[in-house]
Amino acid sequence: MDQTRRLFLGAAALGAGGLMATGATALEHDHGNPGDGGFGRQAVSLPPGATVAYHDPQDVGAMPDFRFSLDGNRPKVTSGGWAKEATVHQFPISKGIAGVHMFLEPGASRELHWHAIAAEWAYVIDGRCQTVVLDPSGASEINNYEPGDLWYFPKGHGHSIQTIGDKPCHFILSFDNGAFSEHGTFSITDWIDVTPKDMLALDFGLSPDAFEAFPKGEAYIQAGPVIPVADALDAPWPKDSTHKFRLLKDPRAVREFEGGSFRLATVDEWPIQKTMSGGVMTIRPGQMRKLHWNVNANEWHYYLKGKGQVALFGSGGRGKVAEFKPGDVAYIPMGFGHAIKNTGDEDLEIVQTWDNGKFEEIDLDTWIKSSPRYLLSNNFAGVPGGTITKLKQG
Questions:
Q1: Residue of 337, 259, 265, 284 whose CA lies nearest to 121
Q2: How confident is the model at residue 8 (pLDDT cuts 50, 70, 90)?
Q3: CATH architecture of the domain with range 70-244
Q4: Is 31 a residue of the active site?
């Protein structure tokens, strides 16, 4: 065996980082069990002066925290309401999805604005509101919402949100970019305030002095007079791809599973929602959403009601369990195995989103049932045959 190949085998056997071996050395590595047809334990020769670093293949880093108290976070408060956010800056694991809990007082509006780096998905928790959205073609839509409704605004589409009726409105927002901050949006009052008045005058046909009365700085959530529900204009989108989805009233959204149910909207049910999926999952007391993983999407939770427990598997011997209560959020990275259990005495309700319009998942028990018995006996060496049989039967 030439020197280059001996060195390659040594490096392959030992990896990089950790324990160093130098000088003319013979290192042993177990490539298999004696008599099983494998390589067995072999000595690997190293030339004088060669350096090999040992790496523990199980050392893949600590499991990051995947729970964050969104409602315990400091809010941004303005005249008409407040917003609390969880981005990758406050919640480092959440690289793919950011979330916001927003509250609008009666008559208040989240002013005209747009997002440069993320689409917006929303679930209305309580109260009523109206959105106005404009797309790049110049088409606009005005929609009224009540609890259980969803909206979706593609990245860059101009929009606003305003409470209608005499009750406050609050809702959960989810964005398909963990680095997105609700506090860094492009708002109309902010833009007009920083633009030279002669340019504004040319654009709008007003005198420069007219813009002295406009707000100074960003209004963000602006207080205002109450708009009666009966007076709120509702102008539907002039084509099929509406920005509104009636999650709690659309039968296409219903999905049942052992222990609970989903109300879920994907791009199949709601064509405009191309980059996200989302809905509400309900788990009955003592039941769980079984062990599974997401093939093509990160997953984000906001806990609405009840008490829950999530067990997360991150490969390399890493696992972590966290407890959740209303106001908490969870983030499950794509590919990480997980299960969700209701640990309380009432239904567990969770708003869930995924950063893919048609997310895919695989259940562990389905995988086991579809695998040959001899393969399972091999993988679970030492487990009694009766247990293997029960695993396959489910």
A1: 265
A2: very low
A3: Sandwich (2.60)
A4: no
